[in-house]
Amino acid sequence: MTRLGGAAAIAATILLLTACATGPTGNTTSVASTSPSASPTATPAPSWPQALIDTSCEELVPQAVVDATFGVPLAAGATDPARALFGTFYQTASEYAGGLSCEWGAIDPAAPTEDRNGSGGPDNWLAVAVDIVPRAAGVAERIASDLNGSVPTADPTGACDFGLCTADMLIGEYWVNVVAVSYADSYLPPTAAQQALFDQVAAVVGGLGESAEPMLPPESAAWASECAQIVSTETLESALDLTSPTWEPSFSYRSSNLAYGAVLVAGGQTCGFGGAESGRTGSINTLPGAGPAFAESLALARTAPEVSVVEIDGLPVDSAFVRVNPLVTDRAELELNLRGTWVTITVGGASMLGDGSLTATERVIALATAMAAA
């Protein structure tokens, strides 16, 4: 079965461990043997990401159902041309959680062109995407509790807004998000077609058995389970010039919080922080073991004009880059490979920047430097 990449796919990035296994040892005897000694059998090294879901994109949604969503052919494995601006951290998190990400897309000349809020890429891009994260019931409940929201259900009924039609479901252990996107409210898929898409995915996932038991990368052991232990409040205060900084959940209201759930299932953290006077001002997300995937993200990011590669004291060259949206100049996002863990740091907001003595980019670099030195 072929597995296709997801919404901004990083095709199977593998982290190979170099540890070798030796055979069992026992007591030796003085009896000589003329037969050759047996060589120990090496145990295959585990690799990441691991596929824990017993299906494929082709089995999940037949091409005919995909093409019927908008009434035009969509290419399997195609990715949004603007993904260099969006980043690929959360899509990679789904893969490292053992999930399945699929996308089909195409440019439709007949579709209207509408503003993508400065996100770049063709406005008439059409896409269907599906993300599935296994063993996610617990994190779905945790995120809903932190947001005072509701846990997704198995109901495949979707909703549309801002050119995006989506169904967010929790089917047994599987968190599922299905999206049909046109970026244009005037060019939404027909109701019957989008519901057929949602029903198809729900039916296949509902028939899946229990997923395989995940194995977390060894890098996950180096990270604390509590946000306050990842970076001290003293570091936040000194690096970002925050007053009485505090930690809080980094989750926010959106049509689906599956991306946050994927980070947690993969052994990572998603943490928000703020100051007494500024409120929520930033976040830190970690994805242990995903350093190789960061390298692919960096190569992609180099193609975006809003991205700058930066040097962080104590880290090798090409370990970090900063992304700044030209329309949101008081906010900056830095991504770095911190000793094998992919870390994203976001800081900004006019209330945080205060007198403007430090830009959002300078602040996010200062925090990354402090983390690298820890």
Automatic annotation (TrEMBL):
Task: Cite the entry's keywords alphabetically.
Answer: Signal
Signal peptide positions on this chain: 1-21
- Key word Signal present in the record? yes
Look up the domain of life of the source. Bacteria
Region Disordered: start-end pairs: 26-47
Could you tell me what this protein is called? Uncharacterized protein
Naturally occurring in which organism (per UniProt) = Plantibacter flavus
